[in-house]
Prior knowledge:
Blueprint: E1 11-14, E2 17-18, E3 25-26, E4 40-44, E5 53-58, E6 63-69, E7 72-77, E8 82-87, E9 92-96, E10 101-105, E11 112-117, E12 126-127, H1 130-136
Antiparallel strand pairs: 1-9, 2-3, 4-11, 5-10, 5-12, 6-9, 6-11, 7-8, 7-10
The structure holds thymidine-5'-diphosphate.
Amino acid sequence: xxxxxxxxxxxxxxxxxxxxxxxxxxxxxxxxxxxxxxxxxxxxxxxxxxxxxxxxxxxxxxxxxxxxxxxxxxxxxxxxxxxxxxxxxxxxxxxxxxxxxxxxxxxxxxxxxxxxxxxxxxxxxxxxxxxxxxxxxxx
Length: 139
Ligand code: TYD
């Protein structure tokens, strides 16, 4: 599944945005704004300054990460190349395919990261050691 993916498949998805003097509204529909069926949603919040989350890869899980509030950086790595994407708008989603090593860092105060996942939670889907990740990618 994730063996052949690379960081060029990581992309910012522009979400709909209804600007309104009463406040803006954005939304996500599965298989329209995310290229997968949404099986799970989780969020990361109350991150103390300087903390890093999500240093791992998934064999099957694809995801869309949205900075609902505040900002943070996502470092994505396919074993050969690495890039950092800053998310700071609630109408951008970052699509991350399976088989990408990713780390979330530089969380601003009160930032809120929401992650839409293509899979239910599974411990077996995680690759937590970078060496194992490189092996998985055949590198
Ligand atoms: P984990 O994905 O390891 O967090 P991070 O890599 O960002 O530091 O998740 C932390 C803990 O939460 C871990 O023990 C598993 C649990 N967890 C669930 O039970 N269900 C979920 O959907 C997620 C994302 C995590």
